[in-house]
Amino acid sequence: xxxxxxxxxxxxxxxxxxxxxxxxxxxxxxxxxxxxxxxxxxxxxxxxxxxxxxxxxxxxxxxxxxxxxxxxxxxxxxxxxxxxxxxxxxxxxxxxxxxxxxxxxxxxxxxxxxxxxxxxxxxxxxxxxxxxxxxxxxxxxxxxxxxxxxxxxxxxxxxxxxxxxxxxxxxxxxxxxxxxxxxxxxxxxxxxxxxxxxxxxxxxxxxxxxxxxxxxxxxxxxxxxxxxxxxxxxxxxxxxxxxxxxxxxxxxxxxxxxxxxxxxxxxxxxxxxxxxxxxxxxxxxxxxxxxxxxxxxxxxxxxxxxxxxxxxxxxxxxxxxxxxxxxxxxxxxxxxxxxxxxxxxxxxxxxxxxxxxxxxxxxxxxxxxxxxxxxxxxxxxxxxxxxxxxxxxxxxxxxxxxxxxxxxxxxxxxxxxxxxxxxxxxxxxxxxxxxxxxxxxxxxxxxxxxxxxxxxxxxxxxxxxxxxxxxxxxxxxxxxxxxxxxxxxxxxxxxxxxxxxxxxxxxxxxxxxxxxxxxxxxxxxxxxxxxxxxxxxxxxxxxxxxxxxxxxxxxxxxxxxxxxxxxxxxxxxxxxxxxxxxxxxxxxxxxxxxxxxxxxxxxxxxxxxxxxxxxxxxxxxxxxxxxxxxxxxxxxxxxxxxxxxxxxxxxx
Length: 652
Known about the structure:
By secondary structure, the chain is of the alpha/beta class. The chain is 33% helix and 17% strand. It has a 7-stranded mixed β-sheet, with helices on both faces. The protein is globular, with a radius of gyration of 28 Å. The two termini are 36 Å apart. Mean pLDDT is 76; it is low at 1-21, 74-80, 136-154, 206-215 and 266-285. This is Peptidoglycan-binding protein LysM. Belongs to the leucine-binding protein family. It comes from Christiangramia salexigens. Residues 24-67, 85-129, 219-262 form the LysM domain.
């Protein structure tokens, strides 16, 4: 388990103190649950979760759990005063069906089977169901983000919590549904938190769900046969992306019988118009300016890992190295990115943030990254920016995971191996595509939608077809889209043409034909993937502008007037105007430095400031990645105008 070695170390420290508590290991057997194990050792489930935090996400066969020995059973806990019946989960059973069968609320079932906060019911799983009328009276934990904080005297039942490295009062309080004031009231002598410290906390361990709305705004809904995510988003007036954030299980797809958390909405109410629908992004927080929240002025320890191939200077002459820079794109990108980092450090310095920067040459090699980490001290490092490529980044994250040192990949859009400390700052292609699909689903009403897709794009074609059942299809013939075929499906109203292909002939013929047809028809061209084919000289930007071309993008066109001072300062320092990689280096590095200056560490900054941050070209909004770590999901939906200017069609 992730924290096993840390916890074992803490156990050694507290063997002398903490009431001379002793521990043993338990190897999980097939069919065992946290509840059955707690019964076998005559302890509370909370005692197991206390020393095995990951167990809240479920336990697996042969997994080792730390079990406290001789722990007195709590006499005032809710679990002790509640009667239960055990239930073996059968096929097609859901939390909703069980709640109806036994006459209890879904949240009551999840409260006593905490693994169900993060995973679905498993066939054959043994869970316990509280008996109605025999449950102990207990104030329900307030959802994260409730504006009225609970009073200190409301916390009557407490438990112990061992402070782990990088944990803060803010994060611990949020985890247990408390306020920082309540946490401090329970621990008046704690002062500054240190790893290994034992403190008192409440017993209400809340699910880690990024919902910042009171529960009165939500209800539960059971998915019916043949329903789609698009149908549900239209029915409840919420975007597909918002539904996925409210229900993390949707990342694995929509299934019949799933119980979804959806915004409360009265059917047929006039307030259900597009302008009044629930907006999760607004609820989670809008644009955040971290410059107004700077409070941590400790020097920031930053490591920059990029492939410079400096060994070439030793082997050859400096002139040869200069020639190599012109020929090696990765090295050029690294140097441009580095120049942006230096500009960000200067900007942070003007705000009172000092930075100690260490730069390492990864030589574009994972083994070199491992060697750098093994031969240098990373204990006090606040963040690692880089490496540039996927494989070396995964090596760095793996080596630094045990130290909780954040590793931020700057440019790769490939899905990476899950490490809890890995931050992918560039949204993946899948996130880009899903964002565009979400934009289309929310704005396609009243449009005549036409889908033009080649054979290679069959998956996205199928998704669009399921999402837009009334759409019409035009299939290219011999890598060509005919004007006559497009004319057959156009109408007098607004026409949306979704073009899915990276074939130059298909894109060229389609855009040329649509440009001619746009003289008599209202046509908007869209794509979920603006590939390099659109940069080809054969594709006319004038045609794309006339067609109001919409596409997803990581970066926006920076405003020359707004960035005038930055461009002048960059040109004065480096003798050239900044390119996209220099600006990316600036945006990403300044975001990291401001986050570190506005919180105790990078992890806490995301809890404290849930909104997105935005700079010259990029914006950042990190969410937990399904495989581990975090990924930036903030992108732009851009529109090319007829005068060839670019504007935001949908911000965030």
